What we know:
The chain has two domains: 4-210, Clc chloride channel, CATH 1.10.3080.10; 229-424, Clc chloride channel (Orthogonal Bundle), CATH 1.10.3080. Helix content is 74%, strand content 0%. The chain contains 19 helices and no strands.
Amino acid sequence: MLSPTIQTIRLWIWAGIAGALGAASTIGFRWLTQQVEWLATGHTGGLVETAMSLPAWHRALVCAVGGLLAGLVLQWGGRWAAKGPRGDRNLDYIEAARAGRVDLNDRTTFTRTLSALFSIGTGASIGREGPMVQLAAWVSSWLARWVAISPEQRNTIMVCGIASGIGSAYHAPVAGVVFVLELAIGFFARSTVAPVLIASATASSLIYWLIEPTPLYVMSGKAVAPTGLAVALLSGIVFGGIGWVWLGLLDKARDLFSRIGSLPVRLGVGGVLVGLISAAVPQVWGNGYSVVSQVLQGEHLWQWLAVVLAAKVAATALSSGSGAIGGVFTPSLFVGATAGSVLAQIAATWMPVAWVGDPRALAVVGMAAVLAAVTHAPLMAIVMVLEMTDQFQLTVPVMLACGVAHAISTQFGAKPIYGNPIEARH
């Protein structure tokens, strides 16, 4: 029988390995999506840049075919998974973490990952980070099942994979830890904190070393915070309302598409509709990273941003509602950033500029506040957005806006995108 000290040290070692595997999963999925993008368009790189280089008809066709293929993979893969030892049961990584389990369905994970590659690589208006984290959690669950440790420690290793996936996907190691503690398991377990810290730090260090040692969103200089904190409070009300409406649209889209029984037809219809939108507004392709980067550089006027925001909201609702495998986490950052910049530019026309601050500042505030509203995880939203943008001078307005936005969203009964961790344990 190993001493408690030896068991703890061994757990930390496995946590570091889980972190490395999480980083490898993130890098591998990113590379695979680029290969699908190249096969579909002949280009690699940012999806928005690729979309803008294609004729309108080509953009529409790529989205339609990609949706159809993604649906076929889900249909055929579901039949294949049903023949496996666990059937077609799909235990999401968040559900597994909250239930203290590590038995993620291998066949279902493979099927959903392959379908996500087709959707994301062909311009679906969803985030690739969700499948990245799912893959990192699945790899870590395999590690947890393989090593000779206690059931509690197995679940810890699996959530280490979640933290490493978040940390490496968003270049935000601390946010990866907070995501696990606030959202995945829903409480601060003393025995979990150290392994999760080690895993997320390991994954992020590898990403910095192998990919790019910078924040995810690089901003030129520091954005000037609004001098009137009332602006942050009022913007929190607006962003909380936006988050509530955003969640409602996503739910409504899922309800509408659920009436289409065939998965290939359902995802194909979603792809066609997104393709038609992208024929006019190519910026709706992908998770929105490049547009958010431009907003944080202060490159666009509010009129253009308002059009792109409306198109992106519609396209993401269609992609997600049709059942395309991918996340709405990053598109929510898009909604917050563009809405924040629009709000700041309009407010600056009738309020003192010093009160409003740099439009980029309200874009950062909007990213965090909308994320807090749709996840009901304000601590994670605050830490993640400040880490991603390296704009820690905005901590106070971000905190105020996130607190208000979270209160607004919960007050109106919005169901968060990851469910409620407290309810999940009862």
